[in-house]
Specification:
By secondary structure, this protein is mostly helical. It has ten helices and no strands.
Length: 242
């Protein structure tokens, strides 16, 4: 919520106790009391920061739009994507819980790259004189951000018993879908991810081939390609970045 409201620095400040404790772990054992107290302190700080941000929003002048609230149906694709992402992550976690941990820890770089994608795309737009030139630069920015994210995940992915393919393909699916949603393209990634989750879930329940180790790569690899193509089509135009 703090990220949505543009309170990144406030969130970082609230998480400082947790960050400091995690940074000290390689050299210092804090003991059970501090191990419990630091996350609790960070949680209370985040809640206080969220309350402050919400208070500022509620006391701000009302919007002049006749209907400032989006219709409830507009949130449906986001919920469907969340369900699909949860199913795919659960299926990966069944075979290797460490993969879910690595994916969770990678959310920081993922969010940063989503943020940087916007800035680099605007820079590419300013440097382009034709739509074709911007499309080429936009593809380069997309490839750079996605590759950087997968490189972050590559070291832990190599430690996974089932191999790195499943985690990297799943990460590519989630990142490209989140990128599209960040630009308001909600239904296409939701439907694509929902179809992938349904296929993977059905194959798991019926014990259909391929085996468990190859199931997610077989499903997520074409899904990632499809989502990347959607990103090129929707975000390779100047309009979303203007």
């Amino acid at each position: 919520m703090l990220l949505v409201l543009g309170r990144e620095r406030l969130l970082l400040l609230a998480l400082t106790p947790l960050i400091a404790g995690a940074a000290a772990l390689p050299w210092w054992e804090p003991g059970p009391l501090l191990r419990s107290a630091l996350p609790l302190l960070a949680l209370l700080a985040v809640l206080a920061a969220a309350a402050r941000a919400l208070t500022a929003c509620l006391t701000a002048p009302a919007a002049t739009s006749a209907d400032p609230r989006p219709p409830l149906r507009a949130s449906v694709p986001y919920g469907l994507f969340g369900l699909a992402a949860a199913v795919l992550t659960l299926l990966e976690g069944r075979h290797d819980p460490f993969a879910v941990l690595a994916l969770t820890l990678s959310m920081g770089p993922a969010e940063w790259l989503l943020y940087r994608y916007r800035g680099w795309s605007v820079t590419a737009l300013r440097a382009s004189s034709t739509p074709a030139a911007f499309l080429l630069r936009s593809c380069g920015v997309l490839a750079l951000c996605l590759t950087a994210y997968l490189l972050v995940l590559l070291p832990p992915a190599r430690l996974i018993a089932t191999g790195p393919a499943a985690l990297l393909c799943l990460a590519a699916v989630l990142w490209t879908a989140l990128l599209l949603q960040a630009f308001g393209v909600a239904w296409p990634p939701a439907l694509v991810c929902l179809a992938a989750a349904a296929a993977a879930g059905t194959a798991t329940l019926t014990a259909s081939p391929p085996g468990p180790a190859a199931l997610l790569p077989a499903v997520c690899a074409p899904t990632a390609v499809c989502l990347t193509a959607l990103a090129v089509v929707h975000l390779g135009r100047p309009a979303p970045h203007a």
